[in-house]
Fold this sequence. Notes:
Order of helices and strands: EEHEHEHHEEEH
Shape: globular
Oligomer: single chain
Radius of gyration: 16 Å
Distance between the termini: 35 Å
Amino acid sequence: METVKGKLFQEISTKRVLSICYQADENYYDLIRNAQRQGFRQIIITSDIMLGLCEHFLLEKNIEILSFDFLVEDDELDETIKSMLSSLYQNKAYWSVLRRYMEFLQKEDSIDIKSTLFMEKPSGEHFSLYVNGIFTASRQYYKKISDFLSEYIARCLG
Length: 158
């Protein structure tokens, strides 16, 4: 199964959010520069937006959260989050506990989310979303996840 990358942008004139598909061997900075020349600004996914997106996917789209990566290396934190995600997998009501913990980390320790790995049920499709607005998905799932993300991010940006 081929994995493709997309980068989220907002069109400055219309405020529309969309993704641009690009290849792994393509220069990322050239992609950003070219998009800016065409009237787009790149989307950055803050931890607040990421948590809101996680909640939306989990509770409304039947999409599971498989893992979080953080901008800091901390084995104890990774194990704690892994345990909480396991509890969440058993019971979605555990989301409020996990979310409060993640918000505490962000506020008190300035620990931000670098990326999140998701899985759609029942298809089993995996996709990832990164702080820099990049996402990865299978070629057949790309449009669906691009539409999900674009719609949600557009609402966040108002």
